[in-house]
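User: Sequence in, structure out. Go.
Assistant: Echoing your sequence, followed by the structure tokens.
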Amino acid sequence: MANQKAGEYAFLVGVVVAVLAALGSFAKALDVATAGWVSALLVVLGIVVGVLNVKDKESQPFLVAAIALLVAGTASFAALNTAVANVGTLLDTVVKNLAVLVAPAAVITAVKATWSLASGK
């Protein structure tokens, strides 16, 4: 149960870091080195989420949601920049940061699901 809570907290911290990093990048407050550390932190948090938080029965919905997020990360919200100044750029950065968080968790979950299928469990 403690592992489940740790995974939940890792995900929540990851979402907060992703949004704050996007705001920092938007405000030009993050330099390249700091952005690299933020990305590394998001990857580590994603690994924690994948290992501790996603259980067998949650694998399929999680992977579908991860695919949707990763596909959305390839889209561009730049069209929204005309409606509200640079809001599209901000949304792009938030979604890309969330993709950095979710991608390692998705890989771990996919490997665990494949292992489960291959082992006949």
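User: And one key feature?
Assistant: Helices lie at 2-26, 32-52, 59-74, 87-119.
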